[in-house]
Amino acid sequence: MRRSRQTETMPRRGRALLGAALAVTSLWAGTATYGLLFHDDLMAGLLARQGAIQADYETRLGALRAEVEQGRREQAALRQGLERRLATALDRQAELERRQAVVTRLPESEPRPAEPAPAPEPFSLRDAEGQPDRAAAKRLQGLESALDAVQASQTRALGRVAAGAARRMQRLRSVIRGAGLDPARFEGGAPAAMGGPLVPVSGDAFAETLEAAQRALDEAERLRRLAGNLPLGRPILGPSSVSSPFGGRLDPFTRGLALHTGLDLKAEFGEAARATAPGRVSLAEAAGGYGNMVEIDHGHGLSTRFAHLARIAVVPGQLVAAGEVVGRVGSTGRSTGAHLHYETRVDGEPVDPARFLDAGRRLAAGSP
């Protein structure tokens, strides 16, 4: 019976093994058949995935290349910008040095502004790897800031020069008006001799300020020369006193009311009488009640007279300078004692000499 059971078991195992073999064979056959049937689709999918990976790689690589190229362009632009800034800064420095020479040549200028910094030592705008040198950029920025400061200092210096000239102009005009004269009286005449090719200046702030300062200086100089040619000086440098002012008075001889056309300055006999401004001697002779008299023409309708002289020291037509001796104090003509009769005349009419003497004192005190 046991044997019968073993006999029955063996066919079962064989059938199981055979079934398993058939299943594996069927699976292999199915897989092979599937592979044969869908090979193209599998290959196409595989190739599509590989293509997508390749495309993504190339896209990323292209973006990286573009980023690198952009960085190179930015570095090149930065380097070129630094080079342009350096060239501009050096040009500005040369221009500021030229302007400094102009400022220091201005007459009666204020204290000189700070000199431009010396030219920087040559330095490279690139580092050892050929990239823009950040330290060089900082040095360049420092140079630009220094040039800005120098330019501002020069502009301020010109402003001070112009302001100082304007103050002198105002003071000189005040002195001239104080003498009873209108400054416009002396603005006529032929223009100063000048010429040359036209070279326009740039319309920047420095050029405009320089032009304004130069105009103010020229006008102040013109007024200074004008004041120097007006009879504002003292006719007697030694001790003297006013014994009779300009205007109405009782005549010392007739005791009647009369016009005194000058200023009587009591002084020692023989004291030097001096020209109060440069001019040309128009009269040097005995002139009736004036006694020995010298008349000087100062131009612009202005003249002065020195009367009652003991001695005349000049001749008609002679050019005299301010302060030059024209005669000696005496008592010739209608005179009661040693003194100088001093007159100032405008367009032939006598005016009060005291106004000119006061204006001269203000001019000397202010030293414009």
Automatic annotation (TrEMBL):
Keywords: Coiled coil, Hydrolase, Signal
Alphabetized Pfam families for the sequence: Peptidase_M23
EC class (word): hydrolase
One annotated GO molecular function: metalloendopeptidase activity
Compositional bias of kind Basic and acidic residues: 124-136
InterPro entries per record: Cell_wall_metabolism_enzyme, Dup_hybrid_motif, M23ase_b-sheet_dom
Protein name: Murein DD-endopeptidase MepM
